[in-house]
Amino acid sequence: MRRVSLLVLLVGLAVRGQDVPVYTDAALAAQWENWSWGSTIDFAATDLRAGAAGSSISVSSGAYSALSVKYDGGLLGGYAGMKFDIAGSNPDLTISLSSTADGTTSPSIPLSALSTAVNATAFTTLLINFKDLPGTGTALPNGTWDRITFQSGGETTTAYHLDNVVIVQQIVVTPEILSAEPLAENIIAVTSQGAVDFTKIAVQLNGKSVRVSNSTSYVPVGSPSKLITYLTLASNFAPGALVITSPTLSINYTLPAAQSMSIDKTKSTPISPLIYGVNFPVSASYIQDLGVTISRWGGNAVTAYNPAGQFTNAGNDWYFENRVASPPDADAWMGWVGGAGSGSLLTVPALDWVAKDATSYSYPVSVYGNQSSHDPYNTNAGSGLYANGSYVTPTPSQTNAYTPWSVSQAVTWLQGLTHKPTLISIDNEIEITSNTHQDMHPNPMGYDEELARMLNYSLAIKTALPNTQIAMPSTCAWWYYWTSSIGYTDNAAHNNTDFIPWFLQQMAAAEKTHGKRLLDYLDLHYYFAPDVSANDAAAKALRLRMSRSLWVRIQCALEPADWSLNQL
């Protein structure tokens, strides 16, 4: 049995053209290979099927395991999307495309973003539009995509059936007005999909029809399936009732009376264009669509980045395992973000070690015994913690996973870059490396060591690249604005001065001593406390508002408080 649901974004869709079957009956189609892991798979299951005859794929995947298939017949990025039938009790799955050529992976698509009505007794037909990915609304980035993965979540075994999996060449989107909003004096912004007839849109203001005198349209860079059209009205808005209607949408607005204000143009403070930054943007279209002005190569893994082999290690974020960095080449990465119109913020490692290869790890279960958890894909790679939460002992030798790193190596690397960074950050949250990178730097870092590392690297970099601006100390969150990992005994040893004021005093003194600017940007990290991990409308709205917590106390009972900023 099969039940057909409304598809992506609840639009009617049809497919036609030269499609590529992935699975029909009893086996994968020609030129497809099974690259699955950690899963029990029957490609000829008959206990549930989409038609009266034939078979389906029965899948039972363990935590983080997957049904994964690789196509040898070419690349998939030029196609319009993927259609499939699925049955299961709302299985915890994410769907992604990846490239076996360069290891890149597309944004993950939660099955729940496609449908929340998938059930175990009947198949539901779903369609992923590569120009309008569910959950993000963005297009599938350009890439050498040749692999499709249905990956289980991390909680329990995930069981489901698939049938009629097809890569489709064309998707016809039903024309629809998605939104219409008044702007400025006489402009209505209309978001649509498909071939909408804009002559069918009617506007009334206080019961009288208002003529549309002009229109201009553009396709958003990151959402090529959408069209934004600005309708210019023949007369200006006035207080009262505005009604916008179309064959698929009717919206009512109550326009308030106009309010006025005066602006003193002689009193202004410039805003840095570099405030519009993101960490590792996913594509050029993402940069251009959002207007990203600075792209950051940063995070826990870059502390161990070895540019000589493009290796890295994410520390306790992922079982202290070395791997090839993703993206691998910082120089090439700065080149493409620059080509997309963004500056770059490059994080330079400032500890004494970087990853030596792509395979080593620090806490083998075969050496240290059972630990609190292990890598589900490599069961010998442990978490570095015992079940009671204490650190595994003895501390491993750094040479197990790392190779020495120094200021001079950093300078040699930076001087050899084809694409120079706009800004350089000296490491990432270096004061907590006795936790995040406990295998590399097991002892808590205090005021003096952190200052010494910041000064040594800044002096060397400013000498080698005098035009580069430097951001420090890349401090992790609230607690470390005031003290160090050692704790308040460290404050006491430094005249009971909080860390950030003390750091600024020391940098000012060092700049006088050396006769040049060493700190260009004070880099403080801030983490919004409320959970915004969901992808529903409420979470999206909260994400948009979270920067307000930097200047507004959040006290509304309907909105979770950010405890850290409410202390200010």
Task: Characterise the protein shown here.
The protein has 568 residues and is an alpha+beta fold. Helices cover 16% and strands 32% of the residues. The strands form eight sheets. Strands 1, 3, 4, 5, 6, 7, 8, 9, 10, 11 and 12 form an eleven-stranded mixed beta sheet that branches. A six-stranded parallel beta sheet has the order 22-23-26-31-32-33. A four-stranded antiparallel beta sheet has the order 14-15-19-18, with no helix packed on it. β28 and β29 form a beta hairpin. α5 runs parallel beside α7. It is globular and about 75 Å long. The N terminus and C terminus are likely disordered. This is Glycoside hydrolase family 44 catalytic domain-containing protein.
Summarize the structure.
The protein is α+β, with helices and mostly antiparallel strands and 568 residues long. Helix content is 16%, strand content 32%. It is globular, with a radius of gyration of 28 Å.
